[in-house]
Task: inverse folding
C-alpha cells in the first residue's frame, strides 16, 4: 500500500498551505485476492523453469521435428510464465488521489509506457457515502454500489481523509 500526503502550491507560489485540510491524500490500491496472486506467481515460476527444463532433460531425442516442437513449447511456456508473474505487480496497481482543493477524487493508473492515465474522476458531491471499516476505506455510489475499497493502515492518513470528506460525503 502506498500512502503519501502531497502539498500543492497556492496561486503559483512555492509556498505550502497553512492548514492541514488542504493537503491532498494519495492512497494506493492493495492487490485483491492474495491467494490468487500467490497461485499465479507459483504457476508462472513453474512455467518459466519448465521452459528451460525441457532442454535439460536427459534422454531427449534430437530429431529436427521434435526440436522445433520443443522450441515452440519452451517459448510458449516462458511467455505465459512471464505474463502470470507480472499480472498483479505492484507497479500496475492504480492510485487514488483525494484533492481537497477541487473537492474530487481521481484514480490514476499507469499505461504501458508508465505514464499515469486518469481512470476515474468524481467530485465529492457526486459520491453516495463513505465507510471506515477497520483498516479499510469504502466509497459508495449514490445507488449504494461499491465504488472503491482502499486499505488505510496509517491513522494520520485516516484522520486526514475523514476531515476532507466530512460535510461533503455521508460518513458511516
Result:
Amino acid at each position: 500500500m502506498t500512502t503519501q500526503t502531497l502539498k500543492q502550491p497556492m496561486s503559483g507560489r512555492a509556498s505550502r498551505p497553512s492548514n492541514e485540510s488542504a493537503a491532498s491524500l494519495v492512497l494506493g490500491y492493495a492487490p485483491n485476492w492474495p491467494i490468487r496472486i500467490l497461485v499465479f506467481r507459483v504457476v508462472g515460476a513453474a512455467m518459466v523453469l519448465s521452459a528451460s527444463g525441457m532442454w535439460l532433460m536427459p534422454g531427449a531425442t534430437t530429431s529436427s521435428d521434435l526440436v522445433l516442437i520443443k522450441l515452440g513449447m519452451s517459448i510458449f511456456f516462458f511467455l505465459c510464465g512471464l505474463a502470470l508473474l507480472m499480472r498483479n505487480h505492484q507497479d500496475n496497481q492504480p492510485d487514488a488521489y483525494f484533492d481537497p482543493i477541487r473537492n474530487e477524487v481521481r484514480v490514476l493508473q499507469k499505461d504501458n509506457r508508465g505514464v499515469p492515465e486518469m481512470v476515474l474522476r468524481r467530485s465529492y458531491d457526486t459520491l453516495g457515502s463513505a465507510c471506515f471499516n477497520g483498516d479499510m476505506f469504502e466509497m459508495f455510489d449514490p445507488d449504494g454500489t461499491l465504488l472503491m475499497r482502499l486499505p488505510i493502515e496509517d491513522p494520520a492518513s485516516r484522520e486526514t481523509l475523514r476531515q476532507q470528506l466530512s460535510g461533503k460525503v455521508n460518513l458511516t
User: Anything to note?
Assistant: Residues 34-56 form the longest helix (23 residues). The chain has three helices and nine strands.
